[in-house]
Design brief:
The chain is an alpha+beta fold. It contains 13 helices and 19 strands. The strands form four sheets. Strands 1, 8, 9, 10, 11, 12, 13, 14, 15, 16 and 17 form an eleven-stranded mixed β-sheet that branches. The protein has a four-stranded antiparallel β-sheet with strand order 4-5-7-6, covered by helices on one side. Strands 2-3 form a two-stranded antiparallel ribbon. The protein is globular and about 70 Å long.
Length: about 500
């Protein structure tokens, strides 16, 4: 009789364990966030944990980068493009049980654009003239001028809606409206979130999710192989991916990020102030060799500063084919038949350090000698980004839809083209999707034809996922691990 009871008990325990495995998930991440308020820090690690899971905005990014309805179920735009009237969803509650209403939206927007705001993307809100609660479910936002990307801006993690009463402890006890509530933070180890039973939208399939922070690539490999984590988002060691691909227990997701990786050129520094020199540099680069050598084959070649997964992307890689002979001829035409010397300043990421060595060798083939300096981020920001003290550098621009930087002559690569500035000015005030698409395509062509920088590849997002786990985003239109659509196969 004791044996029978023991077997029965064991079967129940096994069934419970199987059930838990189907409703819980552990996701590995390399970086732990400094705190959990996405509206007061630039760290992408914050959004990875809380975006869409804990906090929501008026609009939200989908896995394809599209801007979808969020806490606002609909909106009207005035004929002059300056007034947005948002209709909020009814019945939405914050995790502390209080109701979301229009005053919370006004508070959030006013807080983000206040003079003492610490919002890392405060510029997103600079165009707001006023925000007004018309009634409990209606918010009217008036802009200083038409702003065609306003709905896009409101989808950023920096624009999520927060409650006034939660601000005091928001960094350690975030209170949002999302499908999951904050449950626990073991500093230096993990953060756990749990299903929100009062969520306004479709309930997530997961009861609980744990984000496990593992900075060491070797430890990340061990955790995946041992089953200590069910997925590792942004797996940090691409050299291991072939092994995971050969193992039927895992799926390797190879998607795209918003990270345009470029060989930036100082457009005001001789000889890079000559378009022929910039074109020569671009044509001396073998993009695929850099992707293979620095990224183990992961990455998408690009010919302009735009994400390939965006519907408005134009493939302009053919504009700068790998052609060292033509590059040498361009240098000679520009007055540098024997080449020249310049600096190549590299920040810490492996794409820059590994890629820099490869590019230096490629440029040497056309007579350009580079003095390589390996810099820490603080040094790179001081010398390159703020000091303009460089000839060449390699960096990945991870902000979404950031082609507008080419309309800023003071930006670190110092490109000054009035035609490009006019394009971006028109884009800023245009609401029509078709017209916006046309402007964006023209902007891509403009900077490609001016050979402003050497466009290398779109930084890949490589994640390793249990073969039975579904719904982890393959691409990263924003820095988020959105678990609202994640589930286990039976």
């Amino acid at each position: 009789m004791k044996t029978t009871l023991s077997l029965t008990t064991a079967m129940v325990l096994l069934a419970s364990a199987a059930s838990a495995a189907e409703t819980d998930v552990t996701v590995g991440l390399q970086l732990e966030p400094p705190h959990l308020d996405p509206t007061s820090a630039a760290a992408g690690a914050i959004d990875q944990v809380v975006y869409s899971n804990v906090f929501e905005g008026l609009t939200r990014f989908g896995p394809d980068g599209a801007v979808n309805a969020g806490l606002a179920e609909s909106w009207d735009i005035s004929d002059d493009g300056k007034t947005y009237t948002f209709k909020l969803r009814s019945g939405v509650k914050f995790h502390d049980g209080t109701d979301l209403d229009a005053t919370d939206v006004v508070f959030s927007l006013d807080r983000a654009r206040a003079e003492d705001s610490t919002n890392a993307q405060k510029a997103l809100f600079d165009g707001i003239e006023s925000a007004e609660a018309v009634d409990p479910t209606t918010v009217k936002v008036t802009l200083k001028a038409p702003q065609g990307n306003f709905l896009f801006n409101m989808a950023w993690g920096d624009a999520v809606i927060v409650a006034p009463e939660s601000i005091e402890n928001i960094k350690t006890n975030p209170v949002g409206t999302g499908a999951f509530t904050f449950a626990d933070w073991k500093q230096g180890d993990s953060i756990t979130i749990a299903r929100n039973p009062d969520y306004w939208g479709e309930a997530p399939a997961l009861d609980e999710a744990t984000f496990k922070f593992i900075s060491d690539p070797t430890a990340a490999f061990g955790a995946m192989m041992a089953g200590d984590v069910d997925a590792f988002y942004g797996y940090p060691a691409p050299e291991n991916l072939a092994q995971f691909e050969a193992d039927p227990r895992f799926n390797v997701l190879s998607g795209s990020t918003e990270g345009e990786t470029i060989l930036a050129m100082n457009n005001k520094l001789e000889p890079f102030d000559d378009v022929r020199v910039r074109k020569a540099v671009s044509m001396a680069i073998d993009r695929q060799a850099i992707i293979d050598g620095a990224m183990f084959g992961y990455g998408t070649p690009i010919g302009t500063h735009f994400a390939p997964h965006n519907s408005d992307y134009v493939d302009l890689t053919a504009n700068t084919p790998f052609d060292p002979s033509a590059a040498k001829a361009l240098l000679a035409e520009a007055g540098y038949p024997d080449g020249f010397e310049t600096t190549l300043k590299l920040p810490p990421p492996s794409y820059a350090r590994r890629g820099g060595e490869i590019i230096a060798a490629q440029l040497r083939e056309i007579g350009i000698e580079t003095e390589i300096s390996n810099l820490e981020w603080a040094q790179w920001l001081e010398q390159v980004f703020r000091g303009y003290d460089f000839g060449l550098t390699i960096v990945s621009h991870t902000e979404p839809m950031d082609i507008g930087i080419y309309a800023r002559p003071e930006y670190y690569f110092q490109y000054d083209n009035p035609d490009m500035q006019a394009l971006i000015k028109n884009l800023d005030v245009e609401n029509d999707p078709g017209v916006r698409a046309s402007i964006l395509q023209k902007a891509q062509e403009t900077i490609s034809n001016d050979f402003v920088n050497g466009y290398l590849f779109q930084l890949a997002l490589t994640s390793v996922v249990d073969a039975k786990l579904n719904g982890i985003w393959e691409n990263a239109p924003t820095q988020a691990v959105d678990l609202t659509g994640v589930s286990w196969s039976e």
